[in-house]
């Protein structure tokens, strides 16, 4: 499947049945970025990145605007970003990123997803070594040569720049996300099909039979947990 699979997977994430959950998750991420760094995306790179990520997932403008407006008010809701790791059906490796205002609720619901499907919630560091954090940007309207030249001139740390499904896709270390994003912004790129940090597994495994069914059930259960922001795994879907 390779890297191209990661881009297609993200593009397909917002099915009609999951829109409400997706809107809520992205609104929470935008709210937190605005709350911590200010509501002006020109001065708040984290907010600008969150907005671009939301746009790449087709989040409506009014959802984005409401989240920013909420952050500018007197709301004092506090969220924590917490990562969980564990083993799913068939020995699959799972990473769960949450954004929650209730840590006890979050860990209980994440653990329930594992235990109800034959998996096991692990300790920090249990499976993260099986993944690489990677920044991915996918967009149209430029050539690989143009983007590569811009990034090299700016001394950006990049892994690869390729064409996939008619899009230019930039891969970079997660630590280079902001520096690459600034260069792309300055190049006039305003619409991204993907602009985020993901966890790319070193190797993928294939599940069959009961393991495959239980794994699919696990993913569906995570989708229903409000505190879950992102799920990364090493299974071929």
- Spatially, the strands of the biggest sheet line up as 3-1-2-8
| Low-confidence residue ranges | none
CATH superfamily of the largest domain: YebC, transcriptional regulation domain
Shape: globular
Which helices and strands appear, and what pairs or packs with what?
Elements: H1 2-11, H2 19-37, H3 45-56, H4 61-72, E1 80-87, E2 93-100, H5 103-115, E3 120-121, E4 131-139, H6 144-153, E5 160-164, E6 167-173, H7 177-186, E7 194-201, H8 209-223, E8 228-233
Antiparallel strand pairs: 1-2, 1-3, 2-8, 4-6, 4-7, 5-6
Describe the structure.
With 237 residues, the chain is of the alpha+beta class. The protein has 3 domains: 2-72, Arc Repressor Mutant, subunit A (Orthogonal Bundle), CATH 1.10.10.200; 80-129 and 203-233, Alpha-Beta Plaits (2-Layer Sandwich), CATH 3.30.70; 130-201, 2-Layer Sandwich (Alpha-Beta Plaits). It contains 8 helices and 8 strands. The strands form 2 sheets. A 4-stranded antiparallel sheet has the order 3-1-2-8. A 4-stranded antiparallel sheet has the order 5-6-4-7, sandwiched between helices. A hairpin with a 5-residue loop joins strand 1 and strand 2. Helix 2 packs antiparallel against helix 3 (45-56). The radius of gyration is 18 Å and the shape is globular.
List the defining traits of the structure above:
4-stranded antiparallel sheet; 237 residues; Alpha-Beta Plaits; 8 strands; 3 domains
What's the gist of this structure?
The chain has eight helices and eight strands, in the order ααααββαββαββαβαβ. With 237 residues, the protein is α+β, with helices and mostly antiparallel strands.
């Amino acid at each position: 499947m390779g890297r191209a699979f990661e881009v297609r997977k993200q593009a397909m994430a917002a099915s009609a049945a999951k829109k409400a959950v997706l809107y809520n998750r992205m609104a929470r991420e935008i709210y937190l970025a605005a709350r911590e760094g200010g509501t002006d995306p020109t001065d708040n790179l984290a907010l600008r990145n969150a907005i671009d990520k939301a746009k790449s997932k087709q989040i409506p403008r009014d959802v984005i605007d409401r989240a920013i407006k909420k952050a500018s008010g007197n709301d004092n809701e506090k969220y924590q970003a917490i990562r969980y790791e564990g083993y799913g059906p068939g020995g699959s490796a799972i990473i769960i990123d949450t954004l929650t205002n209730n840590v006890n609720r979050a860990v209980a619901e994440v653990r329930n997803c594992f235990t109800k499907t034959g998996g096991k919630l692990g300790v920090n560091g249990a499976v993260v070594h099986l993944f690489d954090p990677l920044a991915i940007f996918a967009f149209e309207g430029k050539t690989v040569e143009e983007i590569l030249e811009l990034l090299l001139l700016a001394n950006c740390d990049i892994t690869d720049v390729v064409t996939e499904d008619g899009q230019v896709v930039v891969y970079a270390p997660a630590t280079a996300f902001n520096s690459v994003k600034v260069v792309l912004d300055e190049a006039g790129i305003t619409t991204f099909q993907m602009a985020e940090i993901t966890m790319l597994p070193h190797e993928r495994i294939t599940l069959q039979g009961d393991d495959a069914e239980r794994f699919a059930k696990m993913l569906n259960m995570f989708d229903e947990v409000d505190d879950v922001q992102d799920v990364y795994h090493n299974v071929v879907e």
